[in-house]
Design a protein that fits this description.
Structural class of chain B: mainly alpha
Oligomer: heterodimer
Strand content of chain B: under 5%
Number of strands of chain A: 26
CATH topology of the largest domain in chain A: Rossmann fold
CATH architecture of chain B: Orthogonal Bundle
CATH architecture of the largest domain in chain A: 3-Layer(aba) Sandwich
Strand content of chain A: 25-35%
Shape of chain B: globular
Distance between the termini of chain A: 30 Å
Shape of chain A: globular
CATH topology of chain B: Non-ribosomal Peptide Synthetase Peptidyl Carrier Protein, Chain A
Chain lengths: 508, 85
């Protein structure tokens, strides 16, 4: 049976605000309206500040750069840049031209960037000069490939295109339910529905001050932080280095923060350690999601006079699936499912349909076949829903690790790095909680024949050194914290595959 | 503010203890302990330590990034050179 929640959020917002929460077919349409409505509001702040009108002009000039480079409506255009004004400008220019912004995480190595250029049929790639080394291999392999400098300028502007709601808007990386990295294609109407949902459930919605610390290549950063800020005529301060977050909060004085639970907890612990509210006196709301939110955070934040709203979302659903306007009363819930979405629960698993859902995983027919059934997207999350419609996440079917920092990592992908070590026969990566902290663990089954042939005397020490060697070169969020060397085999399926949910901490 | 190596170690212990939580026994570790694989710090734990060190020692980390530090000793040396520069 399918359910919907058409007006459940209305009572949490006043009628005047509700009237302003309207539908826009595309990012282009929304941006045009916001520039018309709030031309002199501050839009972006980073190393410089830009009003909506000033940013619009820079976007229009960058559209010219794109058109002169041969970018056309419907083209897949990659963006490889750290969080910056250039990233935002590139995203708006690409999407308002009716092209598709394929967002490449800034940590990708040069071989993966090259692979993405093929996999996503990129026509062009906009690159921040800071990441030029990440495109060296691509330039060598495909000398004719169109690489556009994100800082390039043109002298004249190019108008935005008419973009329909069904037109593709962006491709965002996700581990999905199987844990293998892939790109979810989101249409303009899907993205805009996700943006609109970010306006429900609290009182002070428009003309706020947001601070961005999450990556813009993640839906939570892109949709709930950047685009909801633009939809509401709010200002967004880009904090380029998370270590400077609290210094910049003190200067910019944000009213709404969008944080993963690990950062919300970090702010709390620092506040306790230094005996002062590190978030300052202006923050009213903390939107918290992308990983499990510990209920005690809601209570602790209330002591600072801040409402922390736990929520739940997926890349495949243009971020928001549910948000919790009753967090104080129901802190362990991830809230009510947003309007415009149909949902059902099958064998405990949440299935979704709706305008905000992705079109598909790009170029992944097998992954798409696994992800859908009878037109429903199977989230891989196990849930329960109480009598008032509040959603609780109770477990996970999918093979993916969601770190408290919101980073989605595929254990299989990390394991692949370690399979290059010849004395490792098999390995398993999982996340365990020790002393309340998340510890990324690898269990290794040694290949005894290789160790013997090499004449290794202290096998454990040798394997640990080898694992450390590989670990050193991994991005920080993928680094293994704990190494366990097994003396017995893993529990395996009849086909000899390691059964993830019967090994490691997933053991049932 | 000039500090001796021992003063730095004492303050750093306090910071690391808070990053690791109450249940961790800070005395188990040595200067040669690896931050990631021995202390078990994840990216957020390291971020906590960086922010707390900056606040405690009134220093600013350069763009070197904390990823360049392998052991507790590397951090002590870095702080020592910064505060005694």
């Amino acid at each position: 049976m399918a359910f919907t929640n058409p007006n459940v959020f209305d009572k949490y917002t006043d009628a005047k605000t509700l009237e302003k929460i309207v539908d826009y077919a595309s990012v282009a349409k929304m941006w045009q309206k916001s520039v018309e409505q709030y031309p002199n509001n501050l839009a972006l702040s980073c190393e410089r500040q830009l009003t909506y009108a000033q940013l619009d002009l820079e976007v229009a000039l960058f559209r010219t750069v794109l058109v002169q480079s041969g970018v056309k409506k419907g083209d897949n255009v990659g963006i490889l840049a750290p969080n910056s004004i250039e990233f935002v400008k590139a995203f708006l220019a690409v999407t308002t031209l009716g092209a598709v912004a394929v967002l490449l995480p800034a940590h990708l190595d040069q071989h993966t960037v090259y692979g993405c250029s093929l996999k996503f049929s990129l026509k062009s790639l906009i690159v921040s000069p800071a990441l030029n080394s990440s495109v060296e291999f691509l330039s060598k392999q495909r000398p004719d490939f169109n690489i556009i400098n994100a800082e390039q300028r043109a002298d004249n502007s190019t108008p935005a295109a008419e973009v329909e709601g069904g037109a593709p808007c962006t491709v965002i990386f996700t581990g999905g339910t199987t844990g293998r990295s892939k790109g979810a294609l989101l249409s303009n109407q899907a993205v805009m529905r996700g943006v609109k949902n970010g306006c429900y459930g609290y009182k002070e919605v428009f003309e706020q001050r947001y601070l961005l610390v999450l990556p813009l290549t993640h839906v939570f950063g892109l949709i709930r932080n950047l685009l909801t800020a633009f939809y509401t005529g709010s200002a967004l301060h880009i904090c380029r280095n998370p270590k400077d977050m609290f210094k910049e909060i003190a200067i910019f004085k944000p009213t709404i923060l969008v944080l993963v639970p690990a950062l919300a907890e970090l702010a709390l612990n620092l506040s306790k350690q230094f005996g002062k509210n590190m978030l300052g006196n202006d923050v009213k709301y903390v939107i918290c999601g992308a990983a499990m939110v510990a209920p005690y955070l809601v209570k602790e934040y209330l002591n600072f006079g801040i409402l922390l709203f736990p929520g739940y979302g997926l890349t495949e659903s243009s971020n928001l699936v549910s948000g919790n306007p009753e967090a104080v009363n129901k802190p362990s819930s991830v809230g009510l499912i947003y309007p415009g979405m149909e949902y059902t629960v099958v064998d405990g698993e949440l299935w979704l349909k709706g305008i905000n859902m992705m079109d598909c995983y790009v170029g992944e027919p097998e992954e798409n076949a696994i992800a859908y059934q009878d037109g429903w997207f199977k989230t891989g999350d196990l849930v329960k829903i109480d009598e008032e419609g509040f959603l609780y996440i109770t477990g996970r079917k999918k093979e993916i690790i969601v770190l408290p920092s919101g980073e989605n990592i595929s254990p299989a992908e990390i394991e692949n790095y370690f399979y290059e070590i010849d004395c490792i026969q098999d390995c398993l990566v999982y996340d365990s909680i020790e002393n309340g902290a998340s510890v990324l663990t690898i269990e290794v089954l040694p290949r005894l024949a290789v160790l013997k042939a090499k004449g290794i005397e202290n096998a454990d020490e040798y394997i640990k050194e080898e694992v450390q060697r590989v670990n050193k070169n991994l991005p920080s969020f993928m680094k293994i914290n704990k190494i366990i060397i097994r003396t017995t085999d893993f529990i395996r399926s009849p086909s000899m595959k390691i059964v993830r949910n019967q090994n490691g901490t997933n053991k049932k | 503010m000039a500090l001796t190596r021992n003063e730095i170690i004492e303050k750093l212990k306090e910071v690391i203890q808070l990053a690791l939580g109450d249940k961790a026994n800070i005395e188990e570790y040595t200067e040669n302990s690896n931050l990631i694989t021995d202390l078990g710090l994840n990216s957020v734990g390291i971020l906590y330590i960086v922010i707390a060190i900056e606040e405690f020692f009134s220093i600013e980390f350069d763009d070197v990034g904390f990823g360049d530090f392998q052991t507790v000793k590397d951090v002590i040396d870095y702080i020592y050179n910064k505060v005694n520069a």
